[in-house]
């Protein structure tokens, strides 16, 4: 299981999606904003192109970072999130406003890379777990059989009968009811030590034990023992709580205390009484961790972060301030200068090793109502060569958002009510009316984009959602009249819509 280097991955370009295919995939979830989709599609394709270059020029190609400009709710975050899912790349969303320069309360900017590394390690570990899942399941099954059916008395080392033996006797009785009673009657679960037999194993007992074990194995595969309670030994994962105060914050302390104390203290186990089905999952997870090579996992994860990682910097307009301003704006330019080295390329220390940020793709986003991209410091502006403006949503966009995407809002509410046995039908004129109302409220109160549809739909379905379990009429049609009856008064009353919608 060797980690492939970019230089050896000759199929990168052929295997990756074309820009047109990327846009088509994004269209399934995001309405409009074609310019922004094209920009991120090109940036993603350029990553595959870079990995096909010769080594001497590959490191010279810098990622084309993007600034998305648009009001809230127009799809900035959703574009970045769907893009990361599309290529299965390590992706993290952070708010620029939560980072502050040294001396102010806030997080260290390097923590975004540490969080991205943690995420990548978990992603790679999950994939490796799937690879070894079959082998881990076999090993877990063997452990389950040991718990269900302890070895015969000639192999016992204790004088007391453990709970597993008593459980095995009960399960054995059920097995014998299905036939072959004569083969199992001779199996004795008592743990008395017989001196003359202490150092030799009875072949007859071994044969009976083997046959019974195979019967139990078949019962496990047939699912006949899934609900049986069983007591197993599991690793005690809890560690003592240690609180450490440091001037720079806990993010700067990259010591893995769990590993450090875990090597010093003896490994502890605890007894848990669970069903066979639960025990299988617990044991399979433990066996999978033994089979996975964590060194390879970490190596692959760091490579993914460095070559495929995506950081979405939201609310970047909140730190677009100048030192000439008073108050908290003094810290804004300091935050920009702290973020700058991460974006232009530096090496960050994580608990998994050093991570270079030279080729991580940064996508920044902000409404820029009170500021503009040119208010950012020049050095930071230069690190975001691509700027796209996302358009505000109109009535037609709202109609499409309600019906077209795979996760369409109307479809979500219909499916939710189906769980209560209520069949909802939303007519086309109702969809038109909802779109009109959402557009009007956005114009009159505050433009929050597609999020306005959530508030309107929630208010529209409030009565149905509350009464759904007790409704006698299980088929409901929502038409234009129903929408107006529920929402028109609220929309007309400016003060009421301000607080409710």
Write the layout of secondary structure elements.
Blueprint: H1 12-15, H2 19-27, H3 34-51, H4 55-58, E1 66-69, H5 76-87, E2 91-95, H6 111-131, H7 133-148, H8 163-176, H9 181-184, H10 203-221, E3 229-235, H11 257-264, E4 269-275, H12 276-291, H13 294-308, E5 310-314, H14 330-344, E6 347-350, E7 353-356, E8 361-366, H15 378-382, E9 386-389, H16 395-403, H17 409-418, E10 423-426, H18 428-444, H19 451-460, H20 462-467, E11 475-478, H21 480-492, H22 494-500
Parallel strand pairs: 1-8, 1-9, 2-5, 5-8, 10-11
Antiparallel strand pairs: 3-4, 6-7
Helix pairs in contact: 2-3, 3-5, 6-13, 7-12, 16-18, 18-19, 18-21
What would you say this structure looks like, in words?
The protein is an alpha/beta fold. 50% of the residues lie in helices and 11% in strands. It contains 22 helices and eleven strands. The strands form four sheets. The protein has a five-stranded parallel β-sheet, with helices on both faces. Strands 3-4 form a two-stranded antiparallel ribbon. Strands 6-7 form a two-stranded antiparallel sheet. The model is unreliable at 1-10, 157-162, 179-194, 241-255 and 323-328 (pLDDT under 50).
Quick gist of this model?
The protein is α/β, with parallel strands linked by helices.
Main-sheet strand order equals 2-5-8-1-9
Q: Beta-strand level of the residues, as a percent range? A: 5-15%
N-to-C CA distance: 54 Å
Provide the CATH superfamily of the largest domain.
Answer: P-loop containing nucleotide triphosphate hydrolases
SS field, number of helical segments: 22
Overall average residue pLDDT: 77
Largest sheet: 5 strands, parallel
Task: Fill in the CATH topology of the largest domain.
Answer: Rossmann fold
Shape: flat
What is the count of β-strands? 11
């Amino acid at each position: 299981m060797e980690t492939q280097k970019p230089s050896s991955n000759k199929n990168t370009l052929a295997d990756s999606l074309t820009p047109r295919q990327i846009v088509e995939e994004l269209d399934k979830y995001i309405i409009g904003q074609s310019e922004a989709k094209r920009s991120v599609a090109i940036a993603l394709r350029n990553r595959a192109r870079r990995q096909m270059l010769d080594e001497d020029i590959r490191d010279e190609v810098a990622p084309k970072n993007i600034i998305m400009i648009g009001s809230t709710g127009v799809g900035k975050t959703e574009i970045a999130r769907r893009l990361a899912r599309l290529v299965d790349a390590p992706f993290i969303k952070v708010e620029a406003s939560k980072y502050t320069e040294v001396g102010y309360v806030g997080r260290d900017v390097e923590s975004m890379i540490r969080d991205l590394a943690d995420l990548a390690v978990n992603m790679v570990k999950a994939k490796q777990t799937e690879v070894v899942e079959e082998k881990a399941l076999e090993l877990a099954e063997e452990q389950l059989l040991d718990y269900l059916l302890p070895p015969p008395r000639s192999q016992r080392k204790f004088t007391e009968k453990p709970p597993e033996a008593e459980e095995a006797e009960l399960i054995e009785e059920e097995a014998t009811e299905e036939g072959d009673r004569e083969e199992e009657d001779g199996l004795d679960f008592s743990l008395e030590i017989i001196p003359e037999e202490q150092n030799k194993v009875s072949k007859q007992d071994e044969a009976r034990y083997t046959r019974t074990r195979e019967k139990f194995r078949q019962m496990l595969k047939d699912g006949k023992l899934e609900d049986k309670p069983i007591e197993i030994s599991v690793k005690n994962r809890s560690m003592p709580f240690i609180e450490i105060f440091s001037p720079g914050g806990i993010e700067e302390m990259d010591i893995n205390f769990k590993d450090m104390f875990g090597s010093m203290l003896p490994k502890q186990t605890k007894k848990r009484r669970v069903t066979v089905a639960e025990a299988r999952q617990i044991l399979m997870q433990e066996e999978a961790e033994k089979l996975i090579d964590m060194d390879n996992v970490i190596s692959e994860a760091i490579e993914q972060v460095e070559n495929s990682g995506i950081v979405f910097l939201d609310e970047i307009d909140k730190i677009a301030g100048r030192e000439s301003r008073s108050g908290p704006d003094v810290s804004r330019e300091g935050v920009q200068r702290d973020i700058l080295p991460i974006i232009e390329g530096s090496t960050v220390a994580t608990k998994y090793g050093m991570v270079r940020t030279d080729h991580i793709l940064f996508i920044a986003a902000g409404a820029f109502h009170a500021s503009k991209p040119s208010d950012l410091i020049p050095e930071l502006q230069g690190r975001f060569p691509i700027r796209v403006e996302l358009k505000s949503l109109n009535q037609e966009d709202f109609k499409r958002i309600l019906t077209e995407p795979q996760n369409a809002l109307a479809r979500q509410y219909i499916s939710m009510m189906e769980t209560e046995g209520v069949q909802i039908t939303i007519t086309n004129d109702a969809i038109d009316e909802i779109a009109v109302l959402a557009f009007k409220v956005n114009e009159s109160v505050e433009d929050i984009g597609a999020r306005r549809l959530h508030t309107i739909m929630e208010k529209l379905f409030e009565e149905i959602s509350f009464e759904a379990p007790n409704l006698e009429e299980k088929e409901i049609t929502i038409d234009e009249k129903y929408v107006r009856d529920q929402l028109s008064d609220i929309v007309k009353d400016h003060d009421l819509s301000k607080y409710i919608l």
